[in-house]
Specification:
Length: about 140
Amino acid sequence: MQINIFYKTKISPYYHKTGIYKKALLRALGKQAKKASELNVFVVSPKEMLKINTEFLGHNYITDVITFPYPQNNIKGEVFGDIIVCFEQARKQAPKANTSTLLEFLILMVHGALHLVGYDDNTPKLREEMNSLAQAIAKDALNF
């Protein structure tokens, strides 16, 4: 499984915990994290997130995470996709979630990975289940 993390915005080196992020992402992807799979995570600024959200989803606001699965011309059961995470949104949301910025940032990455393997959050019940799983995986990776 190839996981690439690209820091496209300036954030403190403290948050460049690529090994921890990859560990959590692999756990979230589970059995679908096969050898030929590929996942790219882009850490972007609010300005870039707004641009992506507007251009690709038609939403004129900054969001915390967006997941783009690659076209389904890949081998069945393997994961291919991009996760776009806005670090600044994680920083802003952390106090509201009563958590650290690092944990919130990782939860967002894991949330994106869960979407790639079929999880959905389009109802309150599904959202709660997905958020609980993302939080558990992130906490485990950070040894909380």
